[in-house]
Amino acid sequence: MNRRWTEEEIWDWYREHEWISGCNFIPSGAMDGVVWMLQEYDHQNAFREAAKEIALASSVGLNSVRVFLPFYLWRVQHDSFMKNLEEFLTLLDRYHMTLMPVLFNDCSVAKRLYHEPVLGPQPEPVAGYFGGSPVTPFDDDTQNGDTTGWIPTDDPEMVPVAEQYVRELARVYGQDPRILIWNVWNEAGNSQRGNRSMAVMDQAFAWLREENVCQPLTADVWGADADHPYGWLKNPGVYADIERDAIAQSDIISFHFYGDYTHAKQYIHILEQYGRPLINTEWMHRPYRSLIETHLPLWKKHKVGSYFFGFVNGKAQFNCVWEFIKKLPDIDTKLWMHDIFHSDFTPYDPDEIAVLRECNRDKDIWKE
Hints:
Blueprint: H1 7-15, E1 21-24, H2 35-38, H3 43-59, E2 64-68, H4 71-76, H5 78-94, E3 98-105, H6 159-173, E4 182-186, H7 198-210, E5 217-219, H8 231-234, H9 241-249, E6 253-256, H10 261-272, E7 278-282, H11 292-301, E8 305-309, H12 350-360
Parallel strand pairs: 1-2, 1-8, 2-3, 3-4, 4-5, 6-7, 7-8
Helix pairs in contact: 3-5, 6-7, 7-9, 11-12
């Protein structure tokens, strides 16, 4: 559609689909997202291992995955990237699963710490760190006076390249039912970026609409400009100009919330006021009491789509808490933060898997 969907149109689309129950998929063998699976190096072995995890996801009833597509890999290994992405979509379709691709991402580190994704053999993680590395977007780097994240589209000469990337994906997959929703921008305004990404984010929405893609578009709201780093947990809402812009651009409202059950209900109520379907594209944080047992039934009851963060624990060590949480009182950092399976596919908590299976048994949320 070459414009923003009306409320009636997006609700019609949403009601035509079963309840979305998925995860943010990062293969356990990867340190840099899906680069490990989509790159040229040792692709078949990496893909074979990732395919086992997709089969596991299907076995517990998941019907979609959210994946951060590596813009860098499209630039440096274009042909194999496109071929391997098609292979991944074919795999998902075999299990009746869809893809929500994330195109760009503000959750980033300062330019002096930035590195392009690692190609070739994946590095070994440094034990005890979320993401497998002591350098993460969640560091407090104020002592170095360098707190603003950097992304490639900050360079003006990279914007036309980003346009080529978006338009090619739109032309190849803009009418493909295996793509469920385009997640145009992840956490706009994160990493002290303020409104830096707003202009390019608006352009990316426009590029997709000019290509007349049939899928809805969204950019997440997540608590930017809350009154303090944890304010969005206890006082959920929409505070930042870039989040209001994301909502104004989005056909369907996606959001992130890692807080407890009571505040999760408050956030649902706040976002329902915008009159559009809701999808929580990042949640499940045990130390913050965002739990599958409590929250997944909540999302389903309120017809909120779900993509919890992580799946099979591996090199990215999503079981480890963010560094700044380690300094907080009254946070049980011994709990796994994310992921629901060990690397051998045994559950972290069998009760979680039982609730997941039960919620996924019947996804027809529109029955009277």
